[in-house]
Amino acid sequence: MSTTFTMLKPDAIANGYMGAILDHIIKAGFKIKAMKYTRLTAERAGEFYAVHKERPFYNDLVKYMSSGPIVAAILEKDNAVEDFRKTIGATDPAKAEAGTIRKLYAKSIEANAVHGSDSDENAAIESSFFFSMTERF
Ligand code: ATP
Ligand code: MG
What we know:
Helices cover 40% and strands 19% of the residues.
């Protein structure tokens, strides 16, 4: 078993897809190990996406990610990182495969409904960004 980290982004919550996306994740075989409904400050959003600091979309991304509540969660499954990336689909929902979360629930490349870690190393870093060890089940 391995774990990955996800966020249901502000557009997903604002558009009323929180329940549907969590249901999709659970039905895809992921077990929720930790979860919280919270909101990022612009400073914390900037820190979370610091790897994209030099990209042209960084300032807008920080503004968007701190614009409303999110759900942060740690998910467990075998091959969790890779399988979850398949479950969410391509970054741009227009290019995401049919049946993926981004195809179903996202409208733009920025407001793309969900985040999924891109490596085991980043899954661990991102999980620790939101959760202490005693918050994991
Ligand atoms: P995430 O890290 O959120 O799971 P990802 O790994 O598919 O997404 P990244 O390249 O890491 O994509 O980009 C991080 C986030 O930045 C994207 O999910 C999206 O919200 C935003 N983003 C990426 N590319 C663009 C772009 N060209 N224009 C606007 N926003 C973008
Ligand atoms: Mg990424």
